[in-house]
Amino acid sequence: MALIMSTWAHGNAVVAEHPAGGALQDVDGRNYTAVVGYRTGGVAVYEGTGSIAPEHSDTWFHIPIPTISWLPRAGGPSGRAYLDSFCVLFRLENNCSVTGIHAWDGGNDRFFMAPVPNTIADQQMTGDWTAYGRVLDAAHASGGRTMTNLFSPRVSNPGGGPERRHEMLFGLGISVKVKFDGNGSLHPRIVFFGAGASWHDAPVG
Q1: Residues whose CB is less than 8 angstroms from the CB of residue 32 and which lie 6 or more positions away in sequence, other chains included
Q2: What is the distance between the terminal CA atoms of the chain, rounded to a whole angstrom?
Q3: Which residue intervals of the chain are DSSP H helices?
Q4: Residue 24 DSSP SS3
Q5: Which neighbouring-strand residues pair with 66?
Q6: 1: pLDDT confidence band, cut at 50, 70 and 90?
Q7: Measured by CB atoms within 10 angstroms of the end CB, which terminus of the chain is less buried, N or C?
Q8: What is the signed CA dihedral for 179, 184, 185, 187, rounded to 10 degrees?
Q9: Is-contact 30 52, C-beta < 8 A?
């Protein structure tokens, strides 16, 4: 029983849930980048209006991760692959913060909501999170709770015993909620570098 593979999506695979008429505006005035973002060979950049109106201050971004749903040899008796962990790489600029990170299996199963970050003001992620597995310990994190960009979702075991890794049935999607507060003449931005997952061949152990 071991980690069998990791799969990643580039930052320019990210899409915004509400790309126009809300929290986003064209990046540096480039046409249509409020809708599609400003995509380069390395990243995708989104810029916020900095509006103080609650309905225009934040939006979700979604990242589809290449997903192993069935692997007959390495997947054990069930043939399934199990999500061991996932990581999101991004940088926040000019009073921009991440207030939520969720994971989905297909279209209907939100199986994980990160305890941190969340919408409590002092438990939001800011700054540079482009290093894999970065940890900001509780002594240095605002709100006094450890923050990380590497998550290991676990679910309860119906038969008791240790918690289980999530058994992927369809496709892994990662959702990131971003708040754009604004900072005078500087527009808040998020720069997405990528996101990925590590897969295991067993539910526990």
Answers
A1: 26
A2: 8
A3: 33-36
A4: strand
A5: none
A6: low
A7: C
A8: -10
A9: no
